[in-house]
Design a protein that fits this description.
By secondary structure, the protein is α+β, with helices and mostly antiparallel strands. The chain has two domains: 227 residues, P-loop containing nucleotide triphosphate hydrolases (Rossmann fold, 3-Layer(aba) Sandwich); 118 residues, Nucleic acid-binding proteins (OB fold (Dihydrolipoamide Acetyltransferase, E2P)). Strands 6-7-8-3-9-10 form a six-stranded mixed β-sheet, with helices on both faces. Strands 13-12-11-14-20 form a five-stranded antiparallel β-sheet, with no helix packed on it. It is globular and about 75 Å long. Keywords: ATP-binding, Cell inner membrane, Cell membrane, Ion transport, Iron, Iron transport, Membrane, Nucleotide-binding, Translocase, Transport. Pfam families: ABC_tran, TOBE_2. This is ABC transporter ATP-binding protein.
């Protein structure tokens, strides 16, 4: 039985559906991530699950118990669902110990052991008597997490919980948070617009667009088998070659690609991620085109090269100048503008989509 079961949620504002027939399940100990651009409906979905907004249709169950549908609506405080927001929402007039114990019957004095346990697990024991204004952003985030987990909720909702943190702190805080959530066995529904965060934290990603879940599954599957060009481009930069199908084949500067199942004349997008575009350094600017085992090479010239820290980004234009392609190269690689180079690609990593 799933810990959280969302079935066919729809929500309209002024006749416009901002959430459209959304369904998913989250198991105990699993992190599911609602991922998508601003305005796609992910935060509205979260508010409906929390009980602070009401759906027009659909239903929600927690551990098999119906908490809301068209006739039934359990109040938010009785749903067994915890909340954690991006601004942490700590009470400034209460010390850390009372913030953590706020949702517990009997308060701090009746729950000393639980509060002490959680503060130890988030490494904040020495701040038990501190007030929120005395803590850094990362420390406030740890306290907010401890407070959300104190009542042992079956489901925890997290709305952009790391967006207010300094970028240097985020990865460490995310990893610590994920470890604690797994230990507690909580089912987590996390909202974010950052693909990196979803890939790092989620067991399953629910990719939303225009109020719908367009694809859901493990991060590996969404990255390597996106449902369309837009989904591919949401997770990383992409190069796109366009062409027309003729006899189940499409011509490109890298040779022909199989495009079966599409009628002659259909337009297609052939998508290549920058890390899968390879440079033949041995033949840079000289000699005939190489003949790699898994594809044909294309001649291009450097337009611009930038060093990004861990890798270099090199922008190319084909000899005709009609197509621009980006390639990433580990380390420092800054060839001068105009340098001719042969480019190859891994055909097993190429994605082909009908255009539209």
């Amino acid at each position: 039985m799933p810990r959280l079961d969302v079935q066919g949620l729809t929500r309209r504002f002024d006749g416009h559906a901002v959430v459209r027939d959304v369904s998913f399940q989250v198991q105990a100990g699993q992190v599911a991530c609602l991922l998508g651009p601003s305005g796609c409906g992910k935060s509205t979905t979260l508010r409906i699950v929390a009980g602070v907004d009401i759906q027009d249709s659909g239903r929600i169950l927690v551990d098999g118990r119906l908490i809301c549908d068209g006739r039934t609506r359990v109040p938010p405080e009785r749903r067994g669902i915890g909340l954690m927001f991006q601004d942490f929402a700590l009470f400034p007039h209460l010390p850390v110990r009372e913030n953590v114990a706020f949702g517990l019957a009997g308060g701090w004095k009746a729950n000393r052991d639980r509060v002490a346990e959680l503060l130890d697990r988030v490494r904040m024991t020495r701040h038990i008597d501190s007030y929120p204004h005395e803590l850094s952003g990362g420390e406030q985030q740890r306290i907010a997490l401890a407070r959300a987990l104190a009542p042992r909720p079956g489901v925890l909702l997290m709305d952009e919980p790391f967006s207010g943190l300094d970028e240097r702190l985020r990865d460490g805080i995310r990893d610590e948070t994920l470890a604690l959530l797994k230990e507690e066995g909580t089912a987590v529904l996390l909202v974010t617009h950052e693909p990196h965060e979803a890939m790092r934290m989620a067991d399953q990603i629910l990719l939303m667009r225009d109020g719908r879940i367009v694809q859901q599954g493990a991060p590996y599957n969404l990255y390597n088998a996106p449902v369309d060009r837009q989904a591919a481009g949401f997770f990383s930069d992409i190069n796109v070659l366009t062409g027309r199908v003729q006899g189940a084949l499409t011509d490109t500067p890298f040779g022909q690609f199989l495009t079966p199942g599409l009628p002659d004349g259909a337009e297609v997008d052939i998508v290549i991620r920058p890390q899968h575009l390879k440079i033949d350094f041995d033949r840079a600017g000289q000699g005939p085109a190489p003949t790699p085992e898994n594809g044909t090479a294309a001649l291009a010239r450097v337009r611009r090269a930038r060093y990004l820290g861990r890798e270099s980004l090199v922008e190319f234009a084909t000899d005709e100048g009609a197509i621009t392609l980006n390639a990433t190269v580990p380390g420092v690689f800054l060839p001068p503008e105009g340098t001719p180079m042969w480019l190859m690609l891994r055909r097993d990593r190429v994605l082909v989509f009908p255009r539209g």
